Amino acid sequence: MARTEITALFLMFVSSVLGAITTVLITGCQPPVSMVLPASIVSAAAIAPDVAAESSTNAPATDSAELKMEEFVEPETILSKGEEWPQWGGTRVRNNVPNVKNLPESWNIGKFDRRTGEWDGSKAENIRWFAELGSQTYGNPVVAGGKVFVGTNNGAGYLDRYPSSVDLGCLLAFDQKSGDFLWQHSSEKLITGRVHDWPLQGICCAPLVEGERLWFVTSRGEVRCLDTEGFYDNEDDGIVQNESARVGDLMDSGQGDDFEDSLGRLNEGKLTDALRKVLADAGSEAGDDVQIETLAPNKSWKATGTFGGVERELAIKQLGPRISIFKSLGPHDKHDADVIWVFNMMDELGVSQHNMCSCSVTSYGDLLFVNTSNGLDESHINLPAPDAPSFICMNKNTGKVLWTDQSPGSNILHGQWSSPSIEVLGGVPQVMFCGGDGILYSFRADAGKDGKPELLWQFDCNPKTSKWVLGGEGTRNNLIATPVAYNGLVYIAVGQDPEHGEGEGHLWCIDPTKRGDVSPQLAVKMEGSKRTPIAHKRIQAVEPEKGEAAVDNPNSAVVWHYSLADQNGDGEIDFEEEMHRSCGTVAIKDDVLYVADFSGLLHCLDAKGTPDGMPIVHFTYDMFAQSWGSPLIADGKVYIGDEDGDVCVFEFGPENNEPIEEINMGSSVYSTPVAANETIYISTKDKLFAIGKTDE
């Protein structure tokens, strides 16, 4: 397990990623959501996040009658206006095709000095601004309310109290016009480390934005609602008031007197120079008026006075081999996020995520849908929380859980990092969830009944004889991409964590109006002429050596399926004629579908297929580098990035099988390009670029 086991979370969407995880979010010009929040609903952050936490009481909701199903902004409005891109995929439908005009087809990022980071913009072209991100970035940009939001790690070190040497999951907010840094939400790493919160991965999902409210999932397994204005409105909004935040720590190095001396002086009501330096380094320099009150000798103190020019009260605690200082966040802390409510899925639902929690959430009216990321432990064999839900529906205003579902059960293959999508299909609002067993599930998108949803259909995206093998050597795959709804049909590709390497893939077009098990095949036990259905199995659904077989499903919802196609008609299947594993989400416009696979191929197909269920492949293009993200279709062009840092730009259309430009971004592009208001936004491994036509 090298760089990440979870980076495919990414989602890209990935979200690349998930599509990369990609990606983007939602807001409108309407007033913020009305908030009526009883204090019992949500847990606030504890003074020491890994030491203690107040718990919330999110029992199955009883307030479903109060829910409103009126959407904040209709998807069609967001797509047609092209002014904002407020969630991963722009809307709950997740099709990355904004109606944005006047986009450049070429640009030049200038030159960055590898040692100093200094930018030479003398040769830059069509770069409106750039901003520093962390050292590894998998989150997709979201554009809403005059701001751009991106998930990353803390490599940029925007907050004095968290220098770049401190590993965090960060959600950053920038000014859309200037690129100026506004605020940061900081998620400290879980003490369980890479088991639940892999180092340096940061926030891999994209947030959802509606007006002045933002929802996202932290790497710590929390669903959080934030105020997009932060503390710039000079208010501490929501039920999370005076949220405790770490200022700094004085560690016991065992090689000097600073630690013991500081404990003794605190008991005497004094701050040592060592503690004053900790405060100064964190931007909270202590004034001469500071007073110390001992609450518990050698354990706990209260400091009041001027810190960083602000009159406030700090909490000081000895926590093992460190003296930790905490403050309460408020309107003076402009560069910190203003939290509205928090729901901790690990504490409240018993979830145990594999390596990281990541999901680009989406909404339908007042309903918020979340993949919990429940998964295996570090052995890649044991499922620590088999009874924990994998998919939940919440009241987005309060954070109260309305229903939970654990459909994959004990059949989770690895982790669960995909993001849900929603569309009204066949007259029924459906929310689609990518299960960790490789099965796509569709539920009725409503508040459920008695804490449970209504399952409409399920579709196994892997051949029944495919086999899961540790490390990616097998043929059974996960679902990392996000399902996309287009013209009444649903599209999804299979894949695995990129760390598992390349492998065979499948792209499906599904009829969502059918009900029940609508998989291409059914698993049965053969006993003479008798066929007995068998339950789904985690490693291999059908084992022929045990007298089991895969038979055609008369209730199959397959419209067409793409795994390979002999495009040149030579009777052989070349590398370029195969669909490989993919983290990417499809983008479709005018019945032309684009999707990238992890082997670096961009596939262009007819979204309708043939009447007999065969795919129509227009072309494939080899980018010669792995692609984690998803395509952007906008202004008559198609944009797609790769791990080498190149963004290929194509003229839109099935006949345009060669890029018109291939532009290097200086570092890997694991995310998905997004567009809003005549601007392309691309997050590379370490920077965010706003790309648009300039006057120069």
Automatic annotation (TrEMBL):
Positions of the Pyrrolo-quinoline quinone repeat domain: 549-651
Annotated coiled-coil segments of the chain: none
InterPro entries associated with the record: PQQ_b-propeller_rpt, PQQ_rpt_dom, Quinoprotein_ADH-like_sf, WD40/YVTN_repeat-like_dom_sf
Stored Gene3D superfamilies: 2.40.128.630, YVTN repeat-like/Quinoprotein amine dehydrogenase
PROSITE patterns per UniProt: PROKAR_LIPOPROTEIN (PS51257)
Pfam family, one: PQQ_2
Protein name: PQQ-binding-like beta-propeller repeat protein
Organism encoding this protein: Aporhodopirellula aestuarii
